[in-house]
Each structure stands twice: as C-alpha cells, then as structure tokens.
# Entry
Amino acid sequence: MTDIQKTTAAFPPLRRGLVAILRGLQPDEAVAMAQVILEAGIEAIEVPLNSPDPFTSIRRIAAAMPPQVLVGAGTVLTAENVDRLAEAGGKLLVSPNIDQAVMERAAAHGMVTMPGVMTPTEAFLAIRLGASALKFFPANVLGPAGIAAMKAVLPTTTPVGAVGGVSEGDFAAYSKAGVSLFGLGSSLFKPGMTVAEVAKRARAAAEGWDRTFGEG
# Structure
C-alpha cells in the first residue's frame, strides 16, 4: 500500500450517491443554492473552478453546511488549486482527468478524490494513486455498456460514478452497469436559474435516485 492510498479519504456513505455540480455559480447565490440542494436530500456539492470566483463560493458553502455535507471543487487541474481548495474548507476534489501531482497533494490534505477516467489504463492509474472513487467522464459517450465492460475488471471496492450528460432518467440504466454515483450538472443547475428552479430539479433527482436505489 502506498502512502497516497493510506492518506486518501474513503468516499463517505452519503444518503444518495449524487453530487450536485454547480458550474457557473455566483458567490452571492452560493449558500441559497446549496441549502435547497441539501434540503432535497443531496449531500455532495461541487463548484467547478471555471466558475466565477469559485473559492469564495466554496468557502461560503462549506461554512454554511452541516459537517456531513461533502463540499468541494471540480475541474481541479493543479496542485496549487488543491491547496487553495483546502484553505477554503473543501473536502471533495473532482477532476476531468487523472494527474499524479494533483492526487498527491489531495492525499496530503486527506481529501475525498474523484478523478475523471475514460479507459482501463486511466482507471487503474487512478486506483493506484489512491482515488476514493472513479468518475467515468463523459459518461454519455461511454454509455452504461462501456462502463459495465470496464467495471468487470476493476476492484469491486472502488465506487464508480457517471458524470457528463446524466440526469435522473438515466439512473436505472447505469445502475445495471454497477454505477453507484452520479454527478449532475446541467440537468440540475445552469447559470441564471432561480433558487426555486434548482430546488425543483434537486427534488426530482433525489426522487429518481429513490425510485432506482431505494429511499435514501
């Protein structure tokens, strides 16, 4: 077992395996959006770093949420940004790729990591670098069949997530492929949406999860 694997946090037992991806979130709306998402029953929130002033949003959300809520960043591409995420109180690191420097820094901070992979080579590299879970991205390109084929050779202890073009209508098909985590982006939040609109979509996602996997 490597030092990375010893210090990387395990993916926590969320009520529902859903991560809300708030790309384009504005800091002034961050807490209100996070609150309705949590009220809907989604306990993991990701602010991609290509959003406006993302670390301010992450800091505000992390400070406002109960301790069981997993708050963090997506599109994390550099070790420097891992440090900034830790300073903002983020616990979750999501990336579109697998990068050793990013993973090592995340491990040093004891973060939950979900790097993006698309091939068996990338998936096994991510596991070797101590990934808490795998993010198959873009999932709508791989599809449930593609993920199922790769999952057949992966360790059964590694959680697998589908991100990219996924909504609650896709949960059943992906669940048959062994997917237990979903990152919800534009199906849940788009810049310019009202809090009420996001709350409605978050509730629909939680209800879709419950129909597929059982009530959280």
